[in-house]
Amino acid sequence: MPDLRKARTKMQIVVGTLVAIDLAAVFLLLSPYAGSESSRQAQMRQLWLALKSRETAPWRGLDKKIPEAKQQIAAFYHDRFPSGYSEISNSVDKIASESGVKISSEKYDQKEAEVDNIQLVEIQADVSGDYLQLVRFINTLERSKLFFIVKDLQIAGEQSGHVKLQIKFETYLRLV
After folding, report:
1. Is the dihedral of CA 70, 74, 79, 82 positive or negative?
2. 55: domain range?
3. Which of 6, 28, 91, 96 has an alpha carbon within 20 to 30 A of 51's alpha carbon?
4. Structural contact between residues 147 and 171, judged by C-beta atoms closer than 8 angstroms
């Protein structure tokens, strides 16, 4: 029986505490501290408007941003995408000679791009040189004015300090 009395006493304490919390919540809700219902609704409307204002902020001035973005895209295409294969070949050859590597073979493969007025050009090249020259070649290729994306590198072999590298990279050809 003593366990039942302890349990009953604990239960009465818990119920009493919950009743006290409920009374405090009702008092707080009806007191001037919580404000009237109309003031809470006005505050809710104000917060709702502030939220909607933040959500629509990026869309403001969109009519002015679209032509500007089109101009930036056109400038990017003109500056970074070559208009012919000779421009691609000249750029790759120049980068190779500046880096001190030798290109033994180049293979170009043209594919459809997902965007109008450009073609994807995949380039596979066999390049040889010492390690530092190859690193310099890849860095210069990636930082070139023309838009090159290195896709795959495979070391083909090494002979007396010269490394042979098979590299696959892409660029886009601007259709004029």
Report:
1. positive
2. 2-59
3. 28
4. yes
